[in-house]
Amino acid sequence: MGRSVLLSCEPHEPRVLKKQISGRTPVNLGQERDIWKPLVQSTTNLSEVHSIRSVFEFRTFDPEGAIFYGDTKDGEDWFMLSLKDGIPEMQISKEGTIVSVAGGPKLNDGKWHLLELSNQGKFVILEVDRAKALVVGLGSNGADDLLSGQIRLALGGVLIDTKKMIVQFQPQMDGCVQEGSWLNLTAPWETEAEELWPCYQNIQPGSYFPGTGFAVFNTSVFSRDAEQDGLKIEIWGHFSQMDGTILSMKAPGQELLLALEADNNTKAVTLTFGNDKIMMAEDFNRLALIFQKDLLEVLMENDQSEARRLSVASEEQPAYLGTLAGGRLAIGGLLGEGEEHVGSHYLTGCLQKIQVQGKDLDLDLAVKHASVSSYSCPAEIMKGHID
């Protein structure tokens, strides 16, 4: 009689393989992940640390987001460097006391800046381009135990409960860090990303859509007074270099109201409004859609300030402005059937600026695919390719 063998099939957590990279590796902080989760991090015994000083280069057009984090005592004492309104902000927690200070030059100008963070006695100092920007003093009656335990460092997120911070902010950072020298350590950083996104050599302001996702807004945010005052959407960019759906609009339970699509092969832009379809083959870099009660006006302008205006009657879309109250506006994709935010024909290209009702549209406030860069485009896209 043979033996029976019982195989255990108990569930277990999948093991996440981490990739090691050099601390000097360029890191695109906008890479897809949970919004507060660091993109790269490192853990080291404090006994190996001989200099509390980190230096790195940083570049962004984004006015707000997480940059650099560090902690000891398993997160009891921690440090956070972020941007808010483009200005550096440090939050520091030590022995239960949390301080926050903001100041220095605006860093969201798209240029590389040299940032240095150091701990000198009871002071934490931030230098920007070799000039002091922020100095924070922290007195303590506790024992100096910094040389025991471990120190954790992270880029693009935090390792603590975000409720501990006294200044809340949007963590997504469309920016890059490179040439880092972290404390005096040579140990590699770790990341769960299979491959790190590139930091392009040259960037320009705008929102970049790589052809893999889009951003969706609830139109009620813009259309509270639309029935009386109308709705105006303006887009800047080189339309002849785009491919895919630039914009679409849809109300719940109704057919697609509007779609604006570009074809990089024909260099044509097609506007579909209800049953009307308009082909616009001319090259232009600003497009305004002006929704009024009985018609849709389309204004196109080029670099020579030449303008062309089209008017489309809305007879087949009665009271369409009112239907937008609970509708959806998609930037970079075609809204699908039903109530799902299912998109297709995603946009590949750069939108230099988007305004609704005369105000800049912040894609970080949308439900968007993480591949969409809210504030920067690779400058190579202007040449029709990305190196």
UniProtKB/TrEMBL annotation:
Q: Does the keyword Acetylation apply?
A: no
Q: Does this entry carry the keyword Transferase?
A: no
Entry-linked SUPFAM superfamilies: Concanavalin A-like lectins/glucanases
User: Which GO molecular-function terms appear in the entry?
Assistant: androgen binding; steroid binding
Q: Which InterPro entries match?
A: ConA-like_dom_sf, GAS-SHBG-PROS, Laminin_G
Taking every annotated instance into account, which residue ranges of this chain make up the domain Laminin G? 24-199
PROSITE patterns per the UniProt record, alphabetical = LAM_G_DOMAIN
Q: Where in the cell is it found?
A: Secreted
**Xref: SMART domains:** LamG
Write down a Pfam family by its short name: Laminin_G_1
Q: Which GO terms describe its cellular component?
A: extracellular region
Q: Which UniProt keywords apply?
A: Disulfide bond, Glycoprotein, Lipid-binding, Repeat, Secreted, Signal, Steroid-binding
How is this protein organized at the quaternary level? Homodimer.
The free-text function statement in the UniProt record for this protein reads: Functions as an androgen transport protein, but may also be involved in receptor mediated processes. Each dimer binds one molecule of steroid. Specific for 5-alpha-dihydrotestosterone, testosterone, and 17-beta-estradiol. Regulates the plasma metabolic clearance rate of steroid hormones by controlling their plasma concentration.
What name has this protein been given in UniProt?
A: Sex hormone-binding globulin
The scientific name of the source species is Myripristis murdjan
The primary gene name is: shbg
